[in-house]
Design a protein that fits this description.
Elements lengths: L1 H19 L2 E5 L6 H8 L9 E5 L1 E3 L10 H13 L3 E3 L7 H12 L6 E5 L21 E5 L2 H9 L12 E5 L1 H5 L3 E6 L5 H9 L17 E5 L9 H6 L2
Parallel strand pairs: 1-2, 1-5, 2-4, 5-8, 8-9
Antiparallel strand pairs: 3-7, 6-7
């Protein structure tokens, strides 16, 4: 799945660079992105110095050297391996509203070609936990994380205890994610199966934030057998 998603993403990046001289991307983090980013960064046909990256979300108050820091994740798994041109990272140790404004202004200065996202165990999109704000037009917002989201971070091994997980984060807003020309969503593992089913077979609702991806005209969702296990047989055919 990671290899397939990376091949698809690489084609989109090459096309954007060929058409306009650069590609602007949004990068997600977390365990679901491991295989995808490993395959993508090995691709030698992408002109990485012409890629401009925006950070999807970050914990408020977490240092950049913490093992769970998303800045650290992106440095180690995307920025350093590729030498990409420009990286706009969210500084979780700075004043969060200032970070939202400064990185948001840079983000909205030109269209985003491709957004890489995941789907949380509680169906969150970035750190937009349910009930997500589908209405705000601010590019980044400060949110309070729910317990299900924080338990996922412990379950994936980023933190030892629930009380160690920050309860606030900076996240790209739902409407800003949907403004990308294309979205590539990656959701592997049986832990995501219920969220995937709710996203594809239920209503589009703020209680299931990632369900809003169905309203985007150019989204590709990559699943493995485990994450697709609860889907009705006809569901994938309807969403092709």
């Amino acid at each position: 799945m990671g290899e397939a998603a990376a091949a698809h993403a690489a084609g989109r990046l090459r096309a954007a660079i060929k058409a306009q001289g650069r590609a602007r991307i949004i990068a997600a983090t977390g365990a679901a992105q491991f295989a995808f980013l490993s395959a993508l960064t090995r691709n030698t046909r992408i002109d990485w110095p012409k890629v401009e990256m925006f950070h999807l979300d970050e914990y408020v108050g977490l240092s950049a050297d913490h093992p769970a820091s998303f800045r650290r994740f992106l440095q180690e798994r995307l920025i350093q391996p590729t030498g990409l041109g420009v990286a706009h990272l969210l500084d979780g140790e700075a004043h969060p509203e200032t970070v939202c404004q400064e990185v948001g202004a840079a983000l909205q200065s030109a269209p985003v070609d491709v957004a890489f996202v995941g789907i949380g165990e509680n169906a969150h999109l970035a750190f937009n936990d349910p009930p997500a704000d589908f209405d705000t037009d601010r590019p980044f917002i400060v949110v309070r994380l729910d317990d299900a989201c924080r338990r996922q971070q412990v379950g994936e091994g980023w933190f030892a205890r629930l009380e160690d997980v920050p309860d606030r984060a900076i996240t790209m807003s739902v409407r800003q994610i949907l403004a990308a020309r294309e979205i590539i969503a990656i959701a592997p593992d049986s832990r995501k199966a219920e969220a995937v089913r709710a996203c594809l077979e239920g209503d589009v609702t703020a209680q299931v934030p990632a369900s809003v991806l169905r309203q985007h005209p150019n989204t590709t969702l990559f699943l493995d057998r485990a994450s697709a296990a609860q889907l009705d047989p006809g569901t994938l055919a309807r969403h092709r």
